[in-house]
Each structure stands twice: as C-alpha cells, then as structure tokens.
C-alpha cells in the first residue's frame, strides 16, 4: 500500500544498506521526489559465484546482502560476488556501470541500451502494467523495461542500495527454453525460418511475441495483457485509488487492455499448451 514499489523477483534479497538508507526520512523524501516524475531508481544486482552446496550459496548471498558497499566490493575482488548475469547476459545490466557505482555517493544517470533489464524502484501508480502473456521464462523483464524507456522514463542508479540473487536450481521452463533456443537459432542461421514457415517451439513463439511487443512499444500502440484479478483489485481496493488524473489514466489503460484481451488469448493458450 506504499506509494513506491520495488520491481524485484522472489529470488532476490534487498540489501540492508537500502533499508538503513531509507530509515533516514530525508532520504525517503528524496526518493519519493525523484519518482514523482518519470524516473525509476535502479538497484544494482549481484549474484554469487556458483556453489555446489546450495546452503553455502544461500549463506553467501545472505551475508552479502547484509554488507555495505565497501564490504561488498571486497567480495567482488575475491570473485565470490559479481554483476548479475555477467557471463550469461551481460548486456542486461552493463548500463548500470558497476565500477562507477562502487565510487558513487550520489544517484547518477544511467544511459539505456537495448537489452537492459534492471530491477528498480518506481512510483506504484506510474509503473506500466507487467504483461502476463509472458509465462515461464524469457524476455518478460526486457520487454517491461523497454516499455518504460519508450515512455521516456529516466534511469537513476541508487548510490547505496543493491540486491543479491540467491542461487537456485533451474526451472523446467528455463531448461526447455534454452534447449529450444539452440534449435531456433540454428534454424535462423540456416534460413529455415520464414514468415511462411515459422518456428513454433517455445523459443520461437517467445521471440516472435517479444519482437511484436517491442515493435508495438516503439510505435506507441502497445497494450499489455493485465491479469483479471489485478484489474478487479485496481477497480475495487481503496488503496489503489488516487483522486487525480493519474488514476483516470490508469483506469483508461485498463479499459484499453480489456478491449485488447481477446486478440491475446490465443498466445496465452499456446503458452499453456507448452
């Protein structure tokens, strides 16, 4: 019910450094003021070096989350902690500029580039809806962030707070996507995928939907699919109401998405089959 929300995943730990920073009312007021306009505050993300023992991995992540930035830097130097997805998808977080972050004592501007997918703090009422058509694994956060970028939001890196990923086993959806992605990319290189002969495995469907979403975002006519339960919550819960024009815009967005829902049901149905 707070005016601010942090867009983070369930496998991430928000740092104690951010909590301590927010306990100072001046800092909270500063954060609130920054997010009143079109600004998101990026929380630099870290992950632990892979551990064979999951308990050790979790202990390391939990310990790192309790550290301040200087202490965290020493773990980075020892290669026990590093930038999230550094070896899997480094363009997802490179824009944050981690060397700059370790030296920063004030928020600084982050320049967006394709593929950027940070976790961040944003005004709850201004956060664009997350498209629930993305199920399982792949491209959901990238598409959400590109939507924010094309709505001309500014990205600021938080100088103190950060988040740490807790190691876990790969989901079945992740495993399926990675296997099929390899097959999809081979077919793309071989020229076997055309408009008349699309690849309809999970990776092919996900990539085509991602491209469609991003094209619509760039053209300014994107309407993401909103879960029916969320729609009902926004309409009925008093703490989702604001008495200014922002609420009216949110209600209009919901109406637009409700009208667009039938054309998106086929995609959701296909994903459920997979």
Short structural summary:
By secondary structure, the chain is of the alpha+beta class. It has helices at residues 16-22, 25-36, 54-65, 69-77, 98-103, 140-150, 172-189, 202-219, 228-236, 245-273; strands spanning 4-7, 12-14, 39-43, 45-48, 81-83, 108-110, 119-123, 154-157, 163-165. The model is unreliable at 265-274 (pLDDT under 50).
Describe the secondary structure blueprint for this structure:
Layout: E1 4-7, E2 12-14, H1 16-22, H2 25-36, E3 39-43, E4 45-48, H3 54-65, H4 69-77, E5 81-83, H5 98-103, E6 108-110, E7 119-123, H6 140-150, E8 154-157, E9 163-165, H7 172-189, H8 202-219, H9 228-236, H10 245-273
Parallel strand pairs: 3-8, 4-9
Antiparallel strand pairs: 1-7, 2-9, 3-7, 4-5, 6-8
Helix pairs in contact: 6-8
Quaternary assembly: single chain
Strand content: 5-15%
What would you call the shape?
globular
Computed Rg: 20 Å
Largest sheet: 5 strands, mixed
Number of distinct helices: 10
Count of distinct strands: 9
- The percent range for helix content is 40-55%
| Mean of residue pLDDT values | 88
| Arrangement of strands in the largest sheet | 1-7-3-8-6
Distance between the termini: 35 Å
Taking pLDDT < 50 over at least 5 consecutive residues as the criterion, the unreliable ranges are 265-274
User: Which structural class best describes the helix and strand composition?
Assistant: alpha+beta
What is the string of helix and strand elements? EEHHEEHHEHEEHEEHHHH
How would you characterize the overall build of this protein?
It is a single chain. The chain has 274 residues and is an alpha+beta fold. Helices cover 48% and strands 12% of the residues. The chain has ten helices and nine strands. The protein has helices at 16-22, 25-36, 54-65, 69-77, 98-103, 140-150, 172-189, 202-219, 228-236, 245-273, and strands spanning 4-7, 12-14, 39-43, 45-48, 81-83, 108-110, 119-123, 154-157, 163-165. The protein is globular, with a radius of gyration of 20 Å. The two termini are 35 Å apart. Mean pLDDT is 88; it is low at 265-274.
């Amino acid at each position: 019910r707070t005016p601010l929300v942090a867009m983070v995943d369930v496998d991430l730990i928000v740092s104690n450094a951010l909590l301590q920073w927010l306990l100072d009312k001046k800092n909270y007021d500063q954060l609130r003021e920054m997010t009143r306009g079109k600004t998101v505050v990026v929380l630099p993300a870290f992950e632990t070096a892979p551990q064979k023992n999951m308990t050790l991995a979790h202990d390391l992540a939990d310990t790192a989350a309790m550290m301040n930035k200087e202490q965290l830097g020493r773990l980075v130097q020892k290669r026990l902690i590093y930038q999230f997805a550094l070896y899997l998808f480094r363009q997802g977080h490179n824009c944050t500029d981690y060397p700059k972050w370790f030296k920063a004592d004030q928020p600084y501007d982050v320049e967006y580039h394709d593929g950027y997918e940070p976790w961040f703090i944003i005004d709850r009422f201004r956060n664009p809806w997350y498209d629930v058509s993305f199920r399982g694994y792949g491209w959901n956060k990238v598409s959400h962030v590109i939507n924010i970028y094309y709505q001309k939001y500014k990205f600021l890196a938080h100088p103190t707070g950060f988040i740490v990923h807790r190691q876990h086993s790969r989901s079945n959806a992740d495993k399926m996507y990675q296997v099929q992605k390899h097959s999809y990319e081979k077919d793309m290189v071989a020229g076997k995928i055309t408009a008349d002969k699309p690849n309809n495995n999970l990776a092919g469907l996900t990539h085509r939907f991602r491209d469609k979403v991003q094209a619509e975002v760039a053209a300014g006519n994107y309407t993401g699919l909103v879960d029916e339960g969320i729609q009902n919550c926004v309409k009925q819960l008093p703490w989702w109401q604001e008495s200014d024009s922002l609420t009216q815009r949110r209600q209009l967005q919901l109406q637009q998405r409700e009208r667009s829902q039938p054309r998106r049901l086929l995609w959701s149905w296909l994903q459920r089959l997979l």
